[in-house]
């Protein structure tokens, strides 16, 4: 299968490209820089220079492929409106390019805000609709294309897709802990974050390309919920820092504080049963304890 991957040089994208190639697929990856282009070509994939604002390039990449995996996102926390607008425009362009073909479109999404007071499940619809909502309402926009002859599938990633070299949320929390001299946790630290190892997330994407039906919501979740106190304690152990409760999360952590204070637990039973997906990678705490987050 010829697969067009956006975000092919990103944290999740590089692992997805590797897994797709190992499964025998041909991969064309969207990359922005000469360095990323060379790295992708060295793996045996085909670089496609461009970015999320190059809608003509996205359209061409999608039309030339048998499937699309859309992982790219600007993640500009200083301009969330711009990030959401770019995500919506890219999703609409990719979906329109595949309309009527029956080809797969797997779109990256997340588990945040899906449920209150319990772990989110794949049956929980995304509450985000329209261009002004989180991620530009891209999950619902993509799934709407199932009615237009696209095998649209949402892949909801855990808030932490972890592993050695991760520069995401846990890396940011680690850097803040080292800067402030304390590894904090919000409130009593009982709120939880779902977690998945990068290799397991990549494998799920590959399985979803061939095994997930149109309209499916997949959960890239290996651990239903790791208490934030345990995350903070692991960071503290790794760097010789004390741990302590933090009452004002945003004052202490900045923008990431509001996410660290959320309960983002989720299950993946439906996904596991549907795709026979069994995560085998290390746990989040094991990765932190092994020195995966030097900060």
TrEMBL record:
<feature type="domain" description="NAD-dependent epimerase/dehydratase">
    <location>
        <begin position="3"/>
        <end position="210"/>
    </location>
</feature>
<dbReference type="GO" id="GO:0005737">
    <property type="term" value="C:cytoplasm"/>
</dbReference>
<dbReference type="InterPro" id="IPR001509">
    <property type="entry name" value="Epimerase_deHydtase"/>
</dbReference>
<feature type="region of interest" description="Disordered">
    <location>
        <begin position="116"/>
        <end position="139"/>
    </location>
</feature>
<protein>
    <submittedName>
        <fullName>3-beta hydroxysteroid dehydrogenase</fullName>
    </submittedName>
</protein>
<dbReference type="InterPro" id="IPR036291">
    <property type="entry name" value="NAD(P)-bd_dom_sf"/>
</dbReference>
<dbReference type="GO" id="GO:0004029">
    <property type="term" value="F:aldehyde dehydrogenase (NAD+) activity"/>
</dbReference>
<dbReference type="Pfam" id="PF01370">
    <property type="entry name" value="Epimerase"/>
</dbReference>
<dbReference type="InterPro" id="IPR051783">
    <property type="entry name" value="NAD(P)-dependent_oxidoreduct"/>
</dbReference>
């Amino acid at each position: 299968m010829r697969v067009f991957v956006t975000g092919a040089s990103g944290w999740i994208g590089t692992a997805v490209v590797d897994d797709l190639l190992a499964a025998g697929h041909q991969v064309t990856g969207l990359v922005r820089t000469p360095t990323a282009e060379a790295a992708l070509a060295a793996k045996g994939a085909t670089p496609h220079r461009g970015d999320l604002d190059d809608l003509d390039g996205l359209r061409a990449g999608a039309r030339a492929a048998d499937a699309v995996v859309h992982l790219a996102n600007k993640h500009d926390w200083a301009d969330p409106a711009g990030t959401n607008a770019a995500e919506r425009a890219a999703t609409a362009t990719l979906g329109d390019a595949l309309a009527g073909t029956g080809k797969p479109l797997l779109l990256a999404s997340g588990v945040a805000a899906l449920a209150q007071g319990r772990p989110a499940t794949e049956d929980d619809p995304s509450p985000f609709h329209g261009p002004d909502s989180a991620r530009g309402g891209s999950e619902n926009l993509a799934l709407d294309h199932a009615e237009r002859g696209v095998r649209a599938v949402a892949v909801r990633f855990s808030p932490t897709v972890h592993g050695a070299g991760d520069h995401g949320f846990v890396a940011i929390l680690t850097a803040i802990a080292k800067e402030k001299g304390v590894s904090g946790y919000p409130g009593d630290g009982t709120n939880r974050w779902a977690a998945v190892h990068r290799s397991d997330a990549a494998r799920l994407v590959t399985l979803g390309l061939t095994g997930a039906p149109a309209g499916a919501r997949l959960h890239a979740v290996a651990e239903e919920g790791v208490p934030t106190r345990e995350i903070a304690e692991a960071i503290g152990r790794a760097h010789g820092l004390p741990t302590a409760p933090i009452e004002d999360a945003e004052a202490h952590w900045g923008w990431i504080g509001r996410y660290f204070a959320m309960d983002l637990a989720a299950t993946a039973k439906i996904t596991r049963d549907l795709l026979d997906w069994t995560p085998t990678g290390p746990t989040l705490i094991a990765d932190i304890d092994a020195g995966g987050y030097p900060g």
